[in-house]
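Quick one: structure for this chain?
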Amino acid sequence: MHNRKGTTRSWITALRNIWTYLSRYRLLLMLIFCLVVVSSALSLVGPYLIGFTIDHKLSGNDRSGLLGMIGILLAVYLSGTFSTVLQNVLMIGVAQKTVASIRSALFSHLLKLPISFYLRRQQGEVMSRLTNDIDNISQTLKQLIYSAMFQFVDLCRNAGADVLAESPADVNYANRCPAYVSRYEMDYDTYGKII
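Got it. Here's what it folds into:
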């Protein structure tokens, strides 16, 4: 039977050990987090600007305003793409530098081990294990850190969108668009149809 408490401690210890290597790149991690926030914010601004353009610029014959909004939309989407690419490049760089530091520390540790340690192991066992473990750490760092940042920002963004959806603008949209049915305005008869 597994000891859950020991497993939890080993995970916490492993995360603490990895953080000692990651903490060297704290500023880069903060920059990556800021870029995640910018990407997320720009992904919200684009649809808002499209709605604004449809509501205000297409209703009249304001061609110069429409072209200006198209330019702004292009700038927003290009900025979002640039932010996403930059955060991916920086995250890969942080992960690779962290893995290089781990490899260097591991190699220093292996040099200090006595010969008897290597004599008890099969030929290639230590090298194979080190290679596989460090590759797994590398993949985890690339995916986990970025994913955790993005999930946190996405959670905040969705919470903000839920708060904004309950605003008076939502009610105005419901009054203008007959196809819109608010979740509070639905009534079902006994047969399950909307009345």
